[in-house]
Amino acid sequence: MKKSTGIILTVVVLLFLAAGGIYIGIGMHYVDHFFEHTYINGLDVSDLTVEAAESMIAGEVEDYEMTLLTKEGKQETIQGSAIGYKYVSGGEAKEYMNRQNFFLWLPALFQGDTQYTMETSFTYDETLLEQAADSLSCMQADQVTAPKDAYLTRQEDGSYGIVPEVEGNQLNRDKLMDTLKSAIDQNQESVDLEESGCYLKPSVYSDDGALRAEAAVMNQYSNITVTYLMGGDVTVTLDKETTSGWLSLDENKQPVFDREAVAAWVNQLADTYDTIGTQEPFVTSNGETVYVEAVTYGWQMDRESETEALFQLLMAGESAERSPVYLEGAATRGENDIGNTYVEIDYTNQRMWYYKDGSLLVETSVVTGNTSAGMGSPEGIFCIVGKEEDAILTGEDYKTPVDYWMPFYGGVGIHDADSWRSVYGGTIYQYGGSHGCINTPSAQAAVIYENIDIGTPVICYSSGINYGYGEYSIYGGGGQPQTENQVQSETQAQTGAPSENQDQNSQGDIVILQGGEGGSGASSSDSQEGVQDAGGQSVLGEEGQVFIIE
User: Fold this and answer.
1) How many Cα atoms occupy the beta-carbon half-sphere of 342 within 13 Å?
2) Is there a domain that residue 204 lies in?
3) N or C: fewer beta carbons within 10 Å in the chain?
């Protein structure tokens, strides 16, 4: 009985020792293997060594893929392998292994899952990341629309409207790279590029208050029209399509007009409508059409002053009617601007007519400047610039009073001459003419003087036809032709000037004004140009001043 008990005990001990050995032997396996039901970051590492577990973790990590969502709703991906994405062990798996007590392998078999969560360390190549980003479809030039700011534009009708902004789909590369790096560092698997603010945006939108204010200002100033009253019934409209083309905003967003464009327009207007200096057609009293230069009578715009006036008008932002600033003006605006009140002088026929309001008041023979002495009267369209009674014509060695003095160009004018001349017309002017003035029978000079106004045009020309008017004597209508000696003798008798000492090339008669209406040698705008002093310089005389009559 005792022997049997001993055997049984021996067997039990042996079995116990065998079981313990087996248990310990199995436990030794778990010295470098994870227990069953062990998980790291959700990966089943049961019965794996640290190296095997880390290899599994690395495989999982290096399968990294990032999905990018574009603003158009498209998706693009960046593979971990494309950017050199690799797992870097931080020793966490080894630490988890060290926590195991291999002797407890059996309880661990029945106690459920053991879960470990670790921050996986990894590395990637930033250069490869940039290359991967640049190869995305959303980064290709033919797929990209750059954003555009809303802006003002001039429309076909001359007004200004706002062109809306363009959002576009252009990525901000720097922002994109920062976003991708941050997402990778956080192990994110998807990125919404629009929510992340990776797109470039317009800086000015159509609802921008400042832009709308600019539009309002531009539309106010782009609707300006200026109607020019050019004289007579002639008008010229500077339309809004033109003025709006000159309009812009300065650095302070204030409206400004292109002054050079304004000046160019005024110059064009003046070139079109100025008549001073142009050859004007004129139908003579004999029905002949002659072309006469508008010398001092006609339209001449003050271009500089008008440019400034128009510029200031535009800057005021209001439409208006205006007449240009003129240096010279005329009675009307038409084919020749003369109207129906004027003096007409034909040098060829030594004839003068004076029309007032279309009615002929005076038709008379005259004597004009001595052509043989180089003192022919000037041709052109002029105007009466003064009226004076009781003037004195004075030369180097004579003084002769005249009753009526009506200058129209420098020292040249119309005056009576009966005090030294009794015959007019014919060819007297060729050898015994004046120093340039229009010698007129006193009776006719009086009629003209009493009816003419300062500013009346005077048209002086040489007809191409001699109509044979002949000479006129104040004592009996038509007279016998006078010889040069007869003319000189008559002149000497009237003035007391010796004919043999008379200098035919002198500067001309001298007129001393005794007081009266207007002045001599000035334009209708009171210009002091045209009258010459003894040295040939322009002067404008008041009472008692001296004028040289050419």
Assistant:
1) 23
2) no
3) N
550, 411 contact by CB (below 8 A): yes
Query: CA of 31: how far to CAs of 25, 28, 52, in Å?
Result: 10, 5, 14
Instruction: Please report, as a single letter, which amino acid is at residue 154.
Output: R
pTM above 0.70, yes or no: no
For residues 231 and 116, membership in a common domain is answered with: no
Where residue 233 falls (left for φ over 0; alpha for ψ -120 to 50; beta otherwise) is: alpha
With respect to residue 197, please indicate whether it lies within any of the assigned structural domains: no
Q: At what angle do helices 50-61 and 92-99 cross, to 10 degrees?
A: 140
Same domain, 442 and 373: yes
| Sheet containing 359-365: order of strands | 359-365, 351-356, 342-346, 457-461, 380-383
Q: Are 442 and 405 in contact (CB under 8 A)?
A: no
The residue out of 328, 353, 369 marking a domain boundary is 328
pLDDT digits (tens, 9 = 90+) for 168-207: 999 999 999 999 999 888 888 899 999 999 999 999 999 9
Query: Is residue 480 within 8 Å of residue 512, measured between CB atoms?
Result: no
For the beta sheet containing 38-40, the strands, ordered from the edge strand earlier in sequence to the opposite edge, are 43-44, 38-40, 114-116
- How does pLDDT run across 76-93, given as a tens digit for each residue? 999 888 888 887 777 777
DSSP state of 195: T
335 is a domain residue: no
Question: Which residue reads 């160009």 in tokens?
Answer: 409
Same domain? For 154 and 245 the reply is no
Note the pLDDT tens digit of each residue in 155-168: 887 778 899 999 99
